[in-house]
């Protein structure tokens, strides 16, 4: 069982690293507008009927961008806003032309804001899992600790992906109901759920590494203990036979 632990630990580290990389691809959108990040956005909607709005408008993690008519990539991004909420009346500074589903409600604002917070928490614990995963290469305890930190990242990533899916789908449907064209950014949607899947499999793999990958030192100690008990038992049996012969009539 010795080689099992490092193999599972390496597999888990690769999965966690992949999940964290996809998180970075999501979180850096809008702040870094170069390839390949300029291809990614949460939601795109044609907003030609809304004053002060780009047409189309693309919501990313840090900014609202337009689209380059030639390449189709993000372009003409607005100011970088930490935890940019999805709330068209606030985003555009007007209610004129904004679909009525976005008016007099805070649900989109809250859904997107909590998504951003959960994304950052998941990223933090994902990074911690990468560090503790190195311990999983050499000890069972490291595997259990890594499984715990990865499971926390999994929990918050699941919440972030769920909230993102809700506000993106509801936002698309609201724009379409008002006669605007709207599309979901398939890349960021896929990244969100793929990160969750990576953390899920890594959590199980780390745990199995701790459970199945017995320490070789423990095996040596058990082997020595067994041999010692056998030797002691043989000595006692021999001594018992000798005493029996001495006292036999």
TrEMBL record:
Membrane-spanning intervals of the chain: 116-138, 150-169, 189-214
Biased composition (Basic and acidic residues): 238-249
Annotated keywords: Membrane, Transmembrane, Transmembrane helix
GO cellular component assignments: cell cortex; membrane raft; plasma membrane
Highest taxon above the source species: Eukaryota
Entry-linked InterPro entries: SUR7/Rim9-like_fungi
GO annotation terms (biological process): cortical actin cytoskeleton organization; endocytosis; fungal-type cell wall organization; septin cytoskeleton organization
Transmembrane helix in keyword set: yes
Official protein name in the record: SUR7/PalI family-domain-containing protein
Organism (species): Paraphoma chrysanthemicola
């Amino acid at each position: 069982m010795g080689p099992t632990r490092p193999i599972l630990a390496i597999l888990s580290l690769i999965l966690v690293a992949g999940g964290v990389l996809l998180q970075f691809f999501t979180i850096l959108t809008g702040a870094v507008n170069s390839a390949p990040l300029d291809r990614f956005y949460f939601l795109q909607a044609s907003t030609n009927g809304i004053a002060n709005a780009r047409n189309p408008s693309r919501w990313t993690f840090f900014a609202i961008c337009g689209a380059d008519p030639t390449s189709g990539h993000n372009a003409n991004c607005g100011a970088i806003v930490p935890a940019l909420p999805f709330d068209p009346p606030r985003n555009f500074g007007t209610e004129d032309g904004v679909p009525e589903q976005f008016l007099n409600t805070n649900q989109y604002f809250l859904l997107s804001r909590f998504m951003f917070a959960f994304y950052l928490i998941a990223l933090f614990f994902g990074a911690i899992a990468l560090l503790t995963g190195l311990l999983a290469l050499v000890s069972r305890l490291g595997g259990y600790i890594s499984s715990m930190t990865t499971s926390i990242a999994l929990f918050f990533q699941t919440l972030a992906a769920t909230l993102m899916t809700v506000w993106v789908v509801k936002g698309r449907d609201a724009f379409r109901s008002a006669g605007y064209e709207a599309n979901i950014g398939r890349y960021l949607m896929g990244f969100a759920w793929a990160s969750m899947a990576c953390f899920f499999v890594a959590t199980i793999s780390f745990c199995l590494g701790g459970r199945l990958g017995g320490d070789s030192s423990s095996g040596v100690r058990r082997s020595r203990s067994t041999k010692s008990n056998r030797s002691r038992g043989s000595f006692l049996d021999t001594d018992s036979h000798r005493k029996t012969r001495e006292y036999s009539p």
